[in-house]
Amino acid sequence: MKKLRWQNAVLLFEQFRKHSISAEDLDRANEKASHLDDRMDDFKLLICMCRDSMSGRYKISKWNLSVLVGTIIYVLSPLDAVPDIVPILGWIDDVSIVGYAISKLAEEMRNYRYYRDNAQLSDTI
Questions:
Q1: How many CB atoms lie within 10 A of CB 93?
Q2: 113: pLDDT strictly greater than 90
Q3: Range of the domain at 71
Q4: First to last CA, the chain
């Protein structure tokens, strides 16, 4: 069992290392957000933050961007700790990873909300 987990971890790492996130990936992640229960709104904010960062509208550190992109890719990936095809359990690991990312990116998320609110205000003036 340990060997299988290690092999899955290596496969997942290889997928993350080679994958660059696209607008289509972000759209798919947005569709999967409903499975994240009480983390849905925060996950959608992470997706918006990623879109704005990729477009150059919002600046984010490389470390925070790596946590952000890694989280989104993990949620999208069919290769994770508990595959999403397993009812209920398949989403528990995704919720845990998103929760971890939210805790690590809490300050960045506050900054982004402030940025987004001010950008909307300046658009209306």
A1: 17
A2: yes
A3: 2-124
A4: 60
